[in-house]
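Thread amino acids onto this structure.
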């Protein structure tokens, strides 16, 4: 049976959120403009998480907020493996696992012939039946990356003990429901950022309506022009 972690006290949640926001702002990770997110939706603000994740000290501090919840009274880890999705989740899973002194793995995106995608553990990564698995990721918009990991963990017989992200910009997504088993997992974020996202098009997106050049953040660092 999946272990449900106790909720943090309200004062602790507020303090953690404030510190997470401060780290993102100090790194210059929060920018304004007209952006197309990985989900395909558009936004007037963008979080470039790698401006935070490039800093080992900042990354370590953020991951410590998670690891504090998964140690018992003697300091032993209450999880067996930490898993994250590519790409930012690799860094977060590694650092979280390092602090807990357990192993970390990551799930890669695999495209299906019908155009859909799923997450798969490759490169010899395994989850043994009954192992306690902590899922971590960076920025939550639709929850798609973590959601796609659930079937892979469940199929291996892993016990998901928590789903955590640095920043929730989903607009209120509080749980993840497995598409294969229907099990519901609580979703936890260090910082919730209320930034609206829009369907592409002048009728729905202010940036499109004003013909503001559309930026597509990613590994190339290039803009695409107007959508």
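Threaded sequence (227 positions):
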């Amino acid at each position: 049976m999946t272990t449900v972690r106790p909720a943090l006290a309200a004062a602790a949640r507020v303090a953690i959120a404030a510190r997470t926001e401060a780290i993102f702002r100090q790194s210059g990770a929060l920018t304004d403009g007209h952006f197309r997110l990985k989900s395909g939706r558009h936004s007037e603000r963008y979080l470039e998480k790698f401006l935070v994740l490039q800093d080992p000290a900042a990354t370590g501090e953020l991951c410590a907020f998670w690891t504090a919840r998964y140690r018992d009274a003697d300091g032993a880890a209450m999880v067996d493996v930490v898993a994250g999705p590519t790409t930012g989740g690799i860094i977060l899973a590694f650092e979280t696992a390092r602090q807990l002194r357990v192993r970390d793995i990551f799930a890669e995106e695999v495209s299906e012939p019908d155009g859909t995608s799923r997450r798969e553990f490759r490169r010899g990564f395994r989850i043994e039946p009954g192992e306690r698995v902590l899922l971590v990721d960076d920025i939550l918009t639709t929850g798609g990356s973590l959601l796609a990991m659930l079937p892979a963990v469940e199929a291996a017989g892993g016990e998901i003990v928590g789903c955590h992200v640095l920043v929730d910009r989903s607009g209120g997504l509080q749980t993840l429901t497995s598409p294969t088993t229907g099990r519901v997992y609580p979703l936890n974020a260090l910082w919730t950022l209320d930034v609206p996202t829009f369907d592409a098009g002048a009728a729905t997106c202010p940036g499109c309506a004003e013909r503001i050049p559309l930026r597509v953040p990613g590994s190339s660092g290039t803009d695409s022009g107007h959508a």
